[in-house]
Amino acid sequence: MASVTRRSSSRANRRATADAKILEATERLLASGASFTELGVQRITAEAGVVRSTFYLHFRDKNELLLRLIEPLADGAFDLISSTTIDMGLEGIVAVMIQDIRYYRERRHLLAAVLEVAGYDAVVREFWNSQIQRFTDLAEVWLRAEQEAGRTARDLEPATAARVLTWGGFQVLANHVLSGPESQDETVAREIAQLEWYGAFRRPAQA
Length: 207
What we know:
Elements: H1 4-31, H2 41-48, H3 52-58, H4 62-70, H5 73-82, H6 89-106, H7 108-118, H8 122-148, H9 158-179, H10 185-200
């Protein structure tokens, strides 16, 4: 008699393989310049080498597929930013920001897809906003600590400043990654870092 455990393991492996094929195929198509909105399930399944019905066994619809694709997108950037400390100084923050821009540039097709769909789909927008909120919460913790230590302005409102800092910086970063030249990455990184350093953190400008 065949092992039930072995059969279950085999089904799980096939499911994981099909999942991976569909996700990888979608990412290849996006990286080649396809718009996620215009990308049909038929084209995705043809690229993945699976039948259309297999897609719907694994994903409710295309937006669920997108959520699976972008779930880890912000994680790498958050790891970079959360490793930053004020003690690194301006040049240290510039270096991290350069890494951040390069991280997103390598994944610009995923960034383009999530911003495209977030513009009209509430679920995707809510998910992406929750990802950005992690950065906002972290910035607020930093600003409160700086304020309590007397190193930044007493009249600074940390929660509001954190939102401005995070969303403003991200909008500039995203616009640059999606439409700006790679040769300007370091310049843009420095400008964002300086706005944070001299603006939100109120560090005095050097002569």
